[in-house]
């Protein structure tokens, strides 16, 4: 008992010191739980300084779990030789080549055989630089994005985001040269096929009314919109959009920062839809939790068109590439993409079964190991009920995230290494929470 009191005092002291030493006004700081002070993290399990353990089902960056032993091993081994500062002078270092070659081998079509890789430091940077790349290559200026899309916090990506406009407060990003198209979603009982047809027609109409085709450099999109509440279009939708773009010489930029690397049960989310983008942007888990951003495109697009758009002192840090390469090897060796598809189906079925018992849940959607639970709410209660559920799951030792246009959705996105028994544990806890919500 005395030791528990001491641990609690230590935690309270750390919390006070944290608030004194660090700014907590940033969006991601506000999303952190102030009641969790982690002392260690392995796999899905995070251990608080008091000894309490949590299962992490909400961290979008942790692709292979926390402190994956194979990643820890290779990073520890190579850090003694490659813990270098900045990339200039270290461009032609082996880990950068090995990672690029392995990543390309997973790409579709021409990106595999004729693709090249460009490095940066994050997914937001990848999307930012991809926009500049498209404008430089096509000699056009206009960008078409989609409502509900989320592409990052940089100036250029804030200008094409279709969600959470408050993120741009005091940043005043210029939306000159950008236009937003509707993205399919089938809420409120709307027929999905008809709504997709409407969105396609509006996309085509924009090229007649808002911007002429010879002004449009690219369209940037999430194959599946995660932050907006897991909107999953049909293959027919994307095939028609890609057809319009190809006909008019408009590049297609797939933002796979959240959905790439197997999370949806395919290596890239676009692989579900039978389309091949001109540019793929990757971030979050691509560095196996170390900072890394990647752009993949055809050589003809990247060569002579990237600089000065892509220039960062820490882009493609060798240790990040070491970790990222080992991450790709683990995914291939353990067949984690196929596993994500099968476990995702199991998880979705279990979660729908439990949610069907509770009026609080409107719908459960999922693709691979990215799932979303939409809550029933009215009036101003959209976000309140979801926030309460997040807090109650925290008390049960489970971490989840909240998102959606109205912040009334629960995002569940465990790492690829999640075990079936951990999914079962999650479902039991969720059933308990929903019974009390």
Low-confidence stretches: none
The radius of gyration computed from the alpha-carbon positions, rounded to a whole number of angstroms, is 22 Å
- How many discrete structural domains? 2
The CATH class of the largest domain is: Alpha Beta
Structural class by sheet pairing and helices: alpha/beta
What is the count of DSSP helices, taking H or I runs of 4+ residues?
A: 14
CATH topology of the largest domain: Aspartate Aminotransferase, domain 2
The tally of strands reads 15
Q: Assign the CATH architecture of the largest domain.
A: 3-Layer(aba) Sandwich
Q: Give the overall shape.
A: globular
Distance between termini?
32 Å
Order of helices and strands: HHEEEHHHEHEHEHEHEEEHHHEEHEEEH
CATH superfamily of the largest domain: Type I PLP-dependent aspartate aminotransferase-like (Major domain)
Order of strands in the sheet with most strands: 4-10-9-8-7-5-6
Helix content: 40-55%
Mean pLDDT: 89
- Determine the strand fraction and express it as a percent band: 15-25%
Largest sheet: 7 strands, mixed
Task: Outline the structure in words.
The chain is α/β, with parallel strands linked by helices. The chain folds into 2 domains: 33-62 and 335-436, Alpha-Beta Complex (Aspartate Aminotransferase, domain 1), CATH 3.90.1150; 69-333, Aspartate Aminotransferase, domain 2 (3-Layer(aba) Sandwich), CATH 3.40.640. Helix content is 41%, strand content 16%. The chain is built from 14 helices and 15 strands. Helix 3 packs antiparallel against helix 11. The chain is globular, with a radius of gyration of 22 Å. The mean pLDDT is 89.
